[in-house]
Amino acid sequence: MPVITTIDDLKALHKRRVPRMFYDYCESGSWSEQTFRENTSDFDLLRLRQRIAVDMSDRRISTTMAGQPVTMPVALAPVGLTGMQSADGEIKAARAAQAYGVPYTLSTMSICSIEDVARATDAPFWFQLYVMRDEEFVDDIIARAKNAGVSALVLTVDLQLLGQRHKDLKNGLSAPPKLTPSTMLDLATKWRWGFEMLQTRRRSFGNIVGHAKSVGDISSLSSWTAEQFDPKLDWDTIARLKDKWKGKLIIKGILDPEDAVRAADLGCDAIVVSNHGGRQLDGALSSIRMLPSVLRAVGDRVEVWMDGGIRSGQDVLKARAMGARGVMLGRAYIHGLGAMGQEGVTRALQIIERELDLTMALCGKRDIEDVDRDILLIPKDFEGDWV
C-alpha cells in the first residue's frame, strides 16, 4: 500500500481499482470539460498570505452549517451511483461522515436507498432531491425521507436536462454495468471491486426500483433522466416543494446572482454556489469565481456555500476566506471511497482537515470564524470583466 498524503494519492488508487465507466463518471465533465477543469484551476489563482510571529496554538476549525455543528466547514455532497464506486458505497460514506462529525448527503440517484442508509447509521443525514415529472413519486420520496429522519432536504435545481457527458455516453454507463466485450475486459482487471460487489444485493438505483411507476430500463442513468427529470421545474415548483418538506431546505445549483436573490426570497436555509461539478453547462464560470457576486447579491439573508473544485484543505480555506460559510466535497471523498472504501473516505477527510488546519495557522489565524479575505492575495481581475 502506498503512503497516502493527498487526495491525488487516493485518486490514483481509485483509478486502478474501480471499473473505468464509474471512475470516468466521477472524474469528468460535460462537452469540452472547460468548466470542469476551471473549477480546480481557478483555485490556483488565489494565493495565500504567510504570517509569522503569531500565536498558532489552540486552533479551532469547527463551526456550523445551516445551524448544524460540524467538525470543519465541510459536508459530503450528493453523488449519484456512489454504490458503484465501492459496494454499499453510500452506507460506507455516511458512516465515515457520521464518525467524523460532518454531514452526509444521499443522492436521489444512489445505489443504496434512503432506508438502507437510515438503518445503517445513527445520526440524521441529508437527502438530495431531483424533481421528477411523476409528482406521486416526488411526494412519496419526500415522505420516505421524513420517515427516515432526514434532517435537511438538498434540492438540486440545475439538472432539468442532462448535460452531454461524452465519457458516460461512450462508456455506456449503467448500474450494474452491461456486459459488453470492453466492459468485461475492464472488469477482469478489477477483481477486488467485483468480489465486493458479489457480496451485496445493492447494484441498481435503490431509491427508484420498487418505488417509481411506469418507468422503463433504469439501469441507464441518462435514459431514465431523459424520461423522468422535470424540465418544467420553476420557482413556483420549488416553493411548493418547500411547503411539502416543511424542514431545512438547501438549494443547490445556484450560479447567478439573480437566481441567488430568488432563492433567498424563498426563505431557504442555505444555497450552494455550484455548476454541478462542471457536468451541466460547459463554458459556465467556475463556482469560486461566481461566489463573490452571489455573496454581494444576498448579503447575510441566507447562508452561502459552494462546491466544485475542492481537492484540498487549502481549497476549503480559500472558499471560506472568499465568504462561503462552508463547502460540499464531491470527488475528493469519492476518490477515497473508490480507493479504500469507508477507510478511504475517512482518510480523505483527515487529509482535508489537516491541510485546512495547518494552512490556517500559517496564515496567522487560530479560529475558522476569524478567516476572511485578509489571508488571500486575489488577482484584480479574478471575477473577470465580462460584458
Description:
By secondary structure, the protein is an alpha/beta fold. It has a single domain (7-377), classed as TIM Barrel (Alpha-Beta Barrel). It has 16 helices and twelve strands. It has helices at 7-17, 20-26, 34-44, 82-85, 89-100, 114-120, 135-147, 166-171, 181-188, 191-198, 221-228, 235-245, 257-266, 287-298, 313-321, 331-362, and strands at 47-48, 63-65, 68-70, 74-76, 105-106, 126-129, 152-156, 248-254, 270-273, 303-307, 326-329, 376-377. The strands form three sheets. It has an eight-stranded parallel β-sheet. Strand 8 (248-254), helix 13 and strand 9 (270-273) form a beta-alpha-beta unit. Helix 15 (313-321) packs across helix 16. The longest helix is centred in the C-terminal third of the chain and has 32 residues, at 331-362. The chain is globular, with a radius of gyration of 20 Å. The termini are far apart.
Give the CATH topology.
TIM Barrel
- Could you say which structural class the secondary elements and strand pairing correspond to? alpha/beta
Question: From the 3D coordinates, which CATH architecture would you assign?
Answer: Alpha-Beta Barrel
Shape: globular
Residues in β-strands, percent = 5-15%
Q: How many strand segments?
A: 12
Radius of gyration: 20 Å
- State the end-to-end distance: 51 Å
Q: Give the helix tally.
A: 16
CATH superfamily: Aldolase class I
Strand order of the largest sheet: 4-11-10-9-8-7-6-5
Q: SSE order in H/E notation? A: HHHEEEEHHEHEHEHHHHHEHEHEHEHE
Using the coordinates above, name the CATH class: Alpha Beta
